[in-house]
Design a protein that fits this description.
The protein contains seven helices and twelve strands. By secondary structure, it is α+β, with helices and mostly antiparallel strands. The strands form three sheets. A five-stranded mixed sheet has the order 1-4-5-3-2. α3 (about 140-165) crosses α4 (about 205-215) and α4 crosses α5 (about 225-235).
C-alpha cells in the first residue's frame, strides 16, 4: 500500500486493546535486521492511531507508529514478523528508475575497500589501481569499469566461497555472482550461494563476512538468535563489517 503524503510504502495491523499487563516495556531498538542489512528504525507514538503502522521510507528507514495504549515490545514484534515484506519493499525501492552519475578521469571509485581514482592508461584504456580496463566511449567510464569489476568478482568470489565452506565443513552446490539491487548475498535451500558483484569493492573483512553470513544459512535458514550465534562464532568482528557497509552505502549504491 502506498502513502501519498510522505512517499514510501507501509503496512498496517489493526490494534485490539488488551488489558494492561504489569510488565516493563523494553526500550525501542534503533535498527532492525532485514536480510543482510540493519535498517534504521524510528518508533513514534500517535495519540489518535488505532493500529500499528509500519512504513518503509524512500531512504530505507523503517517508521513504526505505536497507537495509544500499544506497547513498544508488541510494536517491535510486529515489525520483526514483517521482515519478509520489508525485503520485498527494499527490492521495489531499488528497482525504481534512476540515472547513476557518470564517471570520468579522476573520479574516485571504491575498489577492495579503498577509494581509487580513475587514471588514464594506455591508448583506449583506463587504470583503476592495478586494473587496466579497456574503454570504447570516454564520455562515461562507469559502464565499462563496472562490467570489468563484475567479471573480476565472478572470477574471485566463487573460489573464496568454496575455501570458506571447506574450512567450516559445509557443502555448497553452486555459487553465482549477480547484479543484486538491495542484497549483498543470498542462500537457497538447495545450497546455492548468490553474491553481489560489488563485494569486489569492499575490504576483505566485509567480503568474508557476507560470504560467511550466507554460509551460516546452511546451518540456520533464518535470522534467529541461534543464526547470529553461528555468525559470531565464525566471524567475531562481523559488527565492524556491518558498520563499514553502513558508512559506505552511498558510495557503493550511487
Amino acid at each position: 500500500m502506498h502513502n501519498r503524503f510522505t512517499g514510501g510504502v507501509f503496512k498496517e495491523w489493526f490494534f485490539r486493546p488488551k488489558p494492561p499487563v504489569p510488565t516493563p516495556v523494553p526500550p525501542p531498538a534503533d535498527s532492525l535486521p532485514v536480510g543482510n542489512r540493519h535498517l534504521p528504525l524510528r518508533l513514534v507514538r500517535h495519540p489518535r492511531a488505532r493500529r500499528y503502522l509500519l512504513r518503509l521510507l524512500p531512504d530505507a528507514t523503517i517508521l513504526l507508529t505505536v497507537p495509544r495504549g500499544g506497547s513498544i515490545g508488541e510494536a517491535r514484534r510486529f515489525a520483526v514478523s514483517q521482515t519478509a515484506w520489508l525485503e520485498q519493499q527494499l527490492e521495489k525501492l531499488a528497482q525504481r528508475p534512476h540515472r547513476p552519475p557518470g564517471w570520468g578521469i579522476g573520479t574516485a571509485v571504491l575498489f577492495r575497500g579503498i577509494l581509487q581514482p580513475i587514471e588514464t592508461g594506455e591508448p583506449g584504456s583506463v587504470r583503476l589501481d592495478t586494473q587496466l580496463i579497456k574503454v570504447c566511449d570516454a564520455t562515461d567510464l562507469r559502464p565499462p569499469i563496472e562490467k570489468h569489476l563484475h567479471q573480476l568478482a565472478a572470477r574471485e568470489l566463487p573460489p573464496r566461497v568454496w575455501e570458506l565452506a571447506r574450512q567450516h565443513g559445509l557443502t555448497v552446490q553452486r555459487v553465482t555472482v549477480r547484479n543484486q539491487k538491495s542484497r549483498w548475498g543470498s542462500c537457497s535451500r538447495r545450497a546455492t550461494i548468490s553474491l553481489n558483484w560489488r563485494l569486489i569493492q569492499t575490504p576483505e573483512l566485509v567480503r568474508d563476512y557476507i560470504i560467511l553470513h550466507e554460509l551460516m544459512h546452511l546451518r540456520q535458514m533464518n535470522h534467529s538468535d541461534r543464526f547470529w550465534q553461528e555468525v559470531a562464532g565464525v566471524c567475531p568482528n562481523y559488527q565492524a563489517a556491518e558498520q563499514w557497509l553502513k558508512e559506505h552505502a552511498r558510495l557503493l549504491r550511487a
